[in-house]
Amino acid sequence: REIVRRKAVQALYKFYLIAPNQVQHIHDKFRKALCDRDAGVMAASLHIYLQMIKENSAGYKDLTGSFVTILKQVVGGKLPADFNYHSVPAPWLQIQLLRILGLLGKDDPR
Questions:
Q1: Tally of domains within the chain
Q2: Dihedral sign, Cα of residue 33, residue 38, residue 41, residue 44
Q3: What range defines the domain where residue 87 resides?
Q4: Closest by alpha carbon to 53, among 14, 3, 85, 99?
Q5: N or C: which end of the chain has fewer CB within 10 A?
Q6: Is the residue at 68 inside a domain?
Q7: Is residue 109 assigned to a domain?
């Protein structure tokens, strides 16, 4: 089931790149994918969020806490060992999350 959810999120990402106005009605599904219990599904959803935040960061400021929590889990080694690379916990996810957080905080005076 996890692989099906992950592939569905990846397909939605590709569809979003081709026709973003056609997937506007399923943003709730993206939020569910971000909070999925499977780390692969959550990781796949980060691509969609990075793209959407590049286009409109103000619309996703409310998710900053979620992204910080996910980053803490990644750095804390809470993901399965499959995500580690040379003893570094999911470095590609850390980079993706830092990019997202950078975009969200770019115009924030705090």
A1: 1
A2: positive
A3: 2-104
A4: 99
A5: C
A6: yes
A7: no
pTM of the model: 0.86
Residues 6+ apart with CB under 8 A from 15: 22, 23
List the structure tokens of 94: 């850390």
pLDDT tens, residue by residue, 20-30: 888 777 777 88
Taking only the tens place, the pLDDT of each residue in 73-98 is 999 988 888 888 998 998 999 999 99
- As a whole number of angstroms, the distance between CA 59 and CA 52 comes to 9
CA distance 69 to 24: 25
DSSP 39-84: HHHHHHHHHHHHHHHHH-GGGGGGGHHHHHHHHHHHHTT-S-GGGE
